[in-house]
Design goal:
Layout: H1 2-28, H2 39-44, H3 50-74, H4 77-80, H5 83-109, H6 116-141, H7 145-159, H8 161-174, H9 179-207, H10 212-221, H11 224-241
């Protein structure tokens, strides 16, 4: 029971992120219609490099619709207990994030609502996602799974901004705040907050008791039991030799 309760916040978070991702994807499918322009696009036009912007929007929507749920899936115990599946899904997610989601997001950031502060916020989030995804991938290849988990928490945290930011926008709009200020607060608060939470989780896990399986592996890898057995065998061998 205590273990179930300790895992409850994590499970609730993953379910909320999956639900938010599904709702955002359903609302964004209109951007993939090449025959009509949705109101958001009409409102944004004209923009610099219009063809690049439209292409980036569609790439961003498509890659986010796939990579965000995959990131959430990779954080589940079910997939983490299956290394082969975790590795395959992780590689696919890394390719989508590094070569589709982040580059298209950078292009869109320069025409974001809210002006330069929002642009800088999006660029910071993109840098965290790209840097941590690359670092996490390399850490996994080195079998440094502590660094891998830390980096992937940051990736998921920044991708969760898509959900938390929209919730904040709705809340701050309902309070009657200035729209430009709303976009700044609704972006920067989740970006910085997600990074802080990811680091707090890492610090908590670093100072907590080792997992029983990890402790067993550490004991099996330690030479101390072998030395104890050897020292215990010395008197016996001496007696047998007399």
């Amino acid at each position: 029971m205590p273990r179930l309760l300790s895992q409850l916040p994590r499970r609730v978070f993953l379910v909320l992120m999956l639900t938010g991702s599904a709702l955002i994807t359903a609302a964004s499918l209109v951007y993939l219609d090449f025959d009509t322009l949705p109101p958001f696009v009409v409102e944004k036009l004209p923009v610099r490099f219009e063809s690049l912007w439209l292409a980036s929007l569609r790439v961003h929507v498509a890659s986010a619709s796939l990579s965000f749920p995959l990131c959430v899936l990779l954080m589940t115990r079910t997939i983490q207990r299956r290394p082969a599946w975790h590795r395959r899904i992780g590689r696919l997610t890394g390719i989508l994030v590094l070569f589709a989601l982040v580059p298209s997001g950078i292009v869109l950031a320069f025409d974001a609502k809210g002006g330069k502060p929002v642009t800088v916020g999006f660029l910071l989030s993109a840098a965290i996602v790209a840097g941590c995804m690359a670092h996490g991938t390399l850490s996994a290849r080195r079998r440094d799974f502590v660094s891998h988990r830390r980096a992937m928490r940051h990736v998921l945290g920044q991708m969760s901004v898509a959900v938390t930011s929209r919730v904040l926008i709705l809340g701050l709009d309902a309070m009657g705040m200035d729209p430009d200020l709303v976009y700044v607060l609704a972006l920067w608060a989740p970006v910085l907050g997600s990074a802080a939470v990811a680091e707090l989780i890492f610090a908590r896990s670093a100072f907590s008791k080792p997992h029983p399986h990890l402790e067993r592996i550490r004991r099996e890898a330690s030479p101390l039991p072998l030395l104890v057995r050897v020292r215990s065998a010395v008197p016996l061998l001496a007696r047998l030799g007399r």
